[in-house]
Design brief:
heterodimer; A: about 120 residues; alpha/beta; two-stranded parallel sheet; B: about 290 residues; Rossmann fold; Alpha-Beta Plaits; 2 domains; two-stranded antiparallel ribbon; elongated
Chain lengths: ~120, ~290
């Protein structure tokens, strides 16, 4: 299974970034082999609609799931339409999180917010 | 004469100044461009006689014709389009109706269709007219509502425009075509910081301007200093006044409550006319 992580550093020792759409990179890891690749996030400096562009990137690189702390409504719409699973993040390096994922410990959902432009009122 | 009333942040007193300024003019037209929080008519109490929807154009995609080239997705400056599971997906709230995607599509798979983003209410209070723009919750931009509100306004009329707070696109759209801009300032560090950004914007428009300092407490001179440093004429000062707060809280107009307040706004209007006449005669290029 291929899992994408929003990160700000290009390393498997990095922790998951607090935000999804505006993260610098996406780390795409194979949960079985633990091999990974790093992709630039084209949405990092988008004027608007960053969540959509970031989610599009995650879909395009072939992720089956995303592990993230939170995810905005628009990004969620894209990920759900593409049948990408959204899994809640936990603290720790991505290497450790992958171990915990393989042990079946990651069960919570990511926090879904209504976007920041309308102050989460949606 | 069209007067645009601006402020840096909510709670400064922009609507307070705009509604009262409109009230002391004869046969005036009040236009509420503060479309996310239009509350001018709470004070002016115009009886609504007409409502009109405001529509924008958004793309409609023919998925049978679409070949998945993604030209539209890459083109969209506002990221309103995504390409998921062999289908173009539209986020209508983010679309700015530029029509670029439909022009660009090599397959002719995109046509434009109407979508409602808000409405305009027309009301009358005696000989005063009130037009209110209302943006639907969740919409990204109210520019189309504002341009419709201001479309065809006669320059000879006494028009007061209650602009949205801040300095975004909707503010620019609201002051386009104004003959004078009134900057309402709250004499706090935060208030002055906010209005300094609006001031930068107003300067670009080559429209005469002046300031109204609201909720003034003697000793708090930060707003006066800002005006002095930037050569902004101070048109009027309203004291921090519990009675005005009380009137606001019940939706009452200060200038209809007593002659003292009414007189203050009449003097403010005179001052605006005076500065405007001087600036126009001198034709000062700012």
């Amino acid at each position: 299974m291929k899992i994408a992580f929003p990160v700000n550093e290009k390393s498997i020792e990095a922790e998951i970034n607090n935000v999804f759409g505006r993260s610098n990179f996406f780390l795409l890891a194979d949960s079985e082999t633990l091999e990974y690749e790093i992709f630039e996030n084209p949405a990092v400096s988008a004027a608007g609609g960053a969540g959509i562009v970031a989610a599009q990137k995650v879909v395009d690189i072939g992720a089956d799931a995303v592990i993230t702390y939170q995810c905005g409504k628009n990004a969620l719409d894209v990920l759900e339409a593409a049948n990408v699973n959204i899994i809640g993040a936990v603290p720790g390096s991505i290497r450790v999180i992958l171990d915990r994922f393989n042990a079946g410990e990651l069960t919570s959902e990511a926090k879904k917010h209504g976007g920041f432009h309308d102050h989460g009122a949606r | 004469m069209r007067i645009g009333v601006l402020s840096g942040k909510g709670g400064t007193g922009k609507t307070f100044v705009a509604t009262n300024l409109s009230y002391v003019q004869k046969d005036a037209l009040f236009i509420d461009c503060d479309i996310e929080e239009p509350n001018g008519n709470i004070f002016l109490k115009g009886k609504i006689f007409k409502e009109e929807p405001v529509n924008v154009l958004i793309p409609e995609i023919d998925h049978d014709l679409c070949t998945g080239c993604r030209k539209c997705v890459e083109f969209c400056e506002f990221n309103a389009l995504a390409y998921i599971k062999d289908k173009v997906k539209l986020f209508p709230e983010l679309c700015h109706s530029c029509g670029g995607c439909s022009l660009l599509c090599p397959e002719g798979a995109i046509k434009e269709t109407e979508r409602e983003i808000g409405n305009i209410e027309y009301g009358m209070a005696g000989t005063h007219e009130v037009r209110t723009g209302i943006l639907n919750t969740g919409e990204a931009t109210g520019v189309p509502i504002i341009s419709k509100l201001l479309d065809g306004i006669n320059r000879e009329e006494s028009v007061t425009v209650d602009c949205p707070p801040g300095s975004s696109c909707v503010v620019m759209e609201s002051i386009k075509g104004s003959d004078f801009c009134v900057l309402v300032i709250e004499p706090t560090i935060f208030g002055v910081q906010n209005i300094s950004i609006v001031f930068e914007l107003v300067k670009l428009f080559d429209i005469p301007y002046g300031a109204v300092i609201n909720k003034y407490i003697p000793g708090q001179e930060i707003a006066h200093r800002f005006c002095e440093e930037n050569h902004i004429p101070v048109l009027g000062v309203f004291d921090f006044d519990g009675k005005i707060a009380e009137l606001n809280s019940i939706g009452a107009l200060a200038s209809s409550y007593n002659d003292k307040y009414k007189r203050q706004f009449e003097l403010l209007l005179d001052k605006i006319m005076e500065v405007h006449a001087h600036e126009t005669a001198a034709n000062i290029k700012r």
